[in-house]
Amino acid sequence: MRESHSARVVVGMSGGVDSSVAAALLVERGYDVVGVTLRVWPWQEPEDAPGRFGSCCSPQTADDARQVARRLGIPYYLLNSEREFDRTVIDNFAREYRAGRTPVPCVVCNQEVKFGSLLRRARAWEATAVATGHYARLERDPRTGRYLLLRGRDPRKDQSDFLWPLTQAQLAAAEFPVGALTKEEVRAKARALGLPVADKPESMEICFIPDDDYRGFLRRRIPEAFRPGPIVDRAGRRLGEHRGLAAYTVGQRRGLGVTSERPLYVLALDAERNAVVVGEAEGLESERLV
To answer: How many whole angstroms separate alpha carbon 130 and alpha carbon 144?
Structure first.
């Protein structure tokens, strides 16, 4: 936490309880807080109210964040980041699937958008940091001076794995106010403050795929990634035909469409051969991450 409590901090507000409480905690500590919501995807109004409530990219998101900002007495801005998000996050998402890899778009978004372009904009507003509602913590190594990214105190909600690519410069300008709290404590704080999102359900889907049908999204975005090809075992024997590499992920067991006496899993997606390689569970074991 920054020493000067008069410092300006920009809070990325998703309209959910975590980022709302993050903003509230900073206000309580005396910071000059500015709330920002990034509009990253063309908004579509579903007919059902629960659909609007559950999607983090709906107009309801901005409405909720605006209500919280009003309750806290902080300025609030809605920024159109659609083109940038499409170029940096969605293009990467599609490109990785086309190459036979399974991406985590939140990682790219945190690195390139929240603590990339938003941080640059925050500095233009003379802010010293960008804060989010991530369940993660920061410490500074007293010996080396380096910033250390630590897990959130709530092991069920820890999100430090979505922040791992952040550089030292980005970590130095990051704040995670709810990282030392549990989810229950965050909701209790929101209720105590009378925040309208205190009991808002969590959004679990990919933010730009509100219907959670990522395969349908990819079919529209990169139809060429759904060319049929062979399903083979580790020896190269053809066992069946797949529906396109983007329809599979390493570790997948269900929906392979091949029969075997023992369970088979996707071991690799070979983009060069347009082949899905399958095998038994031990084939998934590895001694290194990369």
So the answer is: 23
Same-domain status, 231 and 120 = no
Is residue 3 situated within a structural domain? no
Distance CA 31, CA 33 (A): 6
Residue 12 lies in a domain: yes
Query: Each residue of 56-69: pLDDT tens digit?
Result: 556 788 999 999 99
Q: Which residue has the tokens 């990785």?
A: 96
Whether 106 is catalytic: no
57 is catalytic: no
Geometric angle at alpha carbon 122, from 119 and 123, rounded to 5°:
90
CA pseudo-torsion sign 249, 254, 259, 263: positive
In one-letter notation, the amino acid at residue 238 is: R
Structural domain includes residue 31: yes
Phi, psi (5° rounding) for residue 208?
A: -95, 10
What CATH number is attached to the domain comprising 153? 3.40.50.620
Confidence band, pLDDT 50/70/90 cuts, at residue 41: confident
Catalytically annotated residue among 56, 57, 106, 207: 207
The CATH number of whichever domain residue 255 belongs to comes to 2.30.30.280
Q: How many CA atoms lie within 13 A of 28 on its CB side?
A: 10
Catalytic site residue from 56, 57, 106, 109: 109
